[in-house]
Amino acid sequence: MPSWSTLADKNIVDRRRVSRNAELAKAVRKTRDRLLEKAGQANYEYEILLMYARALAAGAVSVGVLVLIVAFSGFLIGLGRQMVIWALLTIGCYGILALATRKFSQTPADQIDIEHWKNIFFAGHAITGIGWAYFATIRCGACDVAFFPFAQALVLLVAMAATAIICSALRGATIAAFALPIVAYSLTARTELPPTFHGTMVVMLVAALVFFTYIATHFNRSARMALAFQSEKDSLIAELETANAMSDEARRRAEEANLAKSRFLASMSHELRTPLNAILGFSEVMSKEVLGRMGNETYKDYARDIHTSGQHLLNLINEILDLSRVEAGRYTLNEEPTRLVDVVGESIHLMQIKLQKKNIKLTEHFEQDLPFLWADVRSVRQVVLNLLSNAVKFTPANGEIQIKVGWTAGGGQYISIRDNGPGIPQEEIPVVLSAFGQGSIAIKSAEQGTGLGLPIVQALMAMHGGEFRLYSKLREGTEGLAIFPASRVMEAMPAIKPKPRPAKRPRAAA
C-alpha cells in the first residue's frame, strides 16, 4: 500500500502485477508431491512389454548390421563357411524373436497374458543365445592363438551391451541371451588360451554380463518411473479438464442468471418509478399544504417523512437501474468532445451545499490547457459526483478533500479525489467495489448508503475503456482514481493553409 506522500501521478505510473494465487500454488505443490510419492508403485507390465517390443523392432536393424560386420570380418580371415552358417543361424533366431514381438504388438491389450508373453520373450532370447554360442565355439586354425578368442570376447561384449540397451524393458533378457554363449566360450577357449589369460577373459565376460544386467535393470526402473509420471499426469489433466468444464458451465449459468436479473431490473424502470412519482408528488403537496391547511401537525410530519423516504427509495432504484442497464448492455454512451476540468468544476458546484454544511476544505489541482476528451458528459459527471459524494460522506467535519485532474504517464487523463476520512481496511476493498458492498468502519462512522456508487463508477469507466483504482489506508483516508485511456484524448488538428493561386499568364499579342 503506497504511503500518502506518494502523489496520484506516481500511483498511475506504477503498474502492479497481481500476486499469484496462494491456493493455486499450494495445489500444484501438493500434486507434485503426490506424483513423487506414487511413482514406481503401480503395475505397468503391459506398457513395459509394449516398450520392449517397440525397442526391439527399432533395434533389429542395428543387431543385423553387427552380425553382418562380424561375418564379413570372419570371411576375410578365411572363415567364410562357418561365418555364413553363423550369420544365417543368428539372423534366423532374431527373426523368430521379431515375429513374436510383432504378434504381441498386434494383439489387443485385453487379450494379453503378461506372464505367458514374458516366457515367450525369454525363450526367444534363449534361442538367440544359441547363435552366439555357436559363434563362441568357432575356431580359427590359421589365426594367431590369442587373437581370435580375444576378438570373440570383444564381439560378445558389444552384443551384450546392445542387448542390454535395446531390451532393458524386459528384466533378465541379457542373461537369457548370453548365459549360454559365455559357458560355451569358457569351455572351448580353454584349450587354446593360457590358463591365466583364459580365466581373465571368462571373468571379464561374467563381470560384463552382471554389469550390463545392472544397467538394464536401472533403465527398466527409470522406464517404470516415467510411465508412473505419465499416468499421473494424464489423470491430473483429465481431472483439470473436468473441473474446467464444470467451472465453465457454472460460470455460464451464473452469467445467464445475472443477465436475466439485469434485464428484469432494466425493464422494471417504468413500473417502479410510476407509483413512486405519485407518492412523491402527493406527499409533497400534503407537506406543503398546497390545497389547504391540515388540521393535525402530526399528519404534516408523516407526509414529510413519506416524501423523504420516497426520495431515498427513488435514488436507490435509479442506482440499481443504472447498474443493471450497464450489465445488460442497454446503457448507451452519447460521446462528444468534453473537458474534464469543466465537468469536475460543475460537479463541485453541485456539491457546494454539502461541503459548506460540514465545513470541508476543498483543494483543487487542475492542469491547464488539457485537450478535449472524447467521452459521454453525463457518465463522466456521474463518475465525479459518485466519487465526490463518497468523499464528502466519509470526510469528518472540518476535514479536507483534494481533487486533481491531469495527465497520466501513458498520455491519458485522470481524475483523483482523495479524502482524509477513516479509510478502508485493505481486505475490505474488494467488498467495497462489489455491488451493495460497504466497509465496516465506514458504516459506523458515516451515513448509510446503497453501496452502488463505486460499482457504477467501475462500470462506466470500463465502458470508456478506462480504469478505476481505489487506494486506502486505515485512519488516513481514501483515494479514488478514474483513468481515461490515451485513445480518448483528442488532438488538435493543424489549420489547413490555403494553396497559393497560380499567377495569370499575360495574353500574347494578336
UniProtKB/TrEMBL annotation:
Top class in the EC scheme: transferase
Domain Histidine kinase, residue spans: 267-488
Gene3D superfamilies with a match to the protein in the record: 1.10.287.130, Histidine kinase-like ATPase, C-terminal domain
GO molecular function: phosphorelay sensor kinase activity
Entry keyword set: Coiled coil, Kinase, Membrane, Phosphoprotein, Transferase, Transmembrane, Transmembrane helix, Two-component regulatory system
Keyword Transmembrane included in the entry's annotation: yes
EC number of this enzyme: 2.7.13.3
Bilayer-crossing regions: 55-77, 83-100, 120-139, 145-166, 173-191, 197-216
Official protein name in the record: histidine kinase
